Amino acid sequence: xxxxxxxxxxxxxxxxxxxxxxxxxxxxxxxxxxxxxxxxxxxxxxxxxxxxxxxxxxxxxxxxxxxxxxxxxxxxxxxxxxxxxxxxxxxxxxxxxxxxxxxxxxxxxxxxxxxxxxxxxxxxxxxxxxxxxxxxxxxxxxxxxxxxxxxxxxxxxxxxxxxxxxxxxxxxxxxxxxxxxxxxxxxxxxxxxxxxxxx
Length: 199
Hints:
Rossmann fold, seven-stranded mixed sheet, alpha/beta
């Protein structure tokens, strides 16, 4: 994740990232009542999604494999005097993580090679009736990332494929819908939000 370390302090300079963060966090907060819930964000980046969620949740722990991204996240937490959110350098598969009421991520799962194993890990980390919320790209032709393809394992996801994966892992009450569109490279890319409950 060296690329993310290099760009972390300039990450928020692109307006489309701010817009997407607002759209995704807003959709997540409409889909799930985070009040009183402990939440884990996978790939928390600079907090564009996690910090708005923290306004409603009991607590948010952001994990990211990029040290510099976590530094930006925690700097915002300090500047905004947010007491219920923090980011740590952790790996979803390798590190011990707390059990939580909700797990969410935005534009992260296409960076994870084994999607099924990631969902299984999330299922294990959720308390009973816990919620999972995953925002990511619809299947695309690879042009979204273009030459910046380091660490890209999926050119988005087929929604039916993703729904089937969630079902096979054990998730229930699955809904998937479009929550945002990104204009980039003279193309439009749809972002979906998948929401499901631990069975």
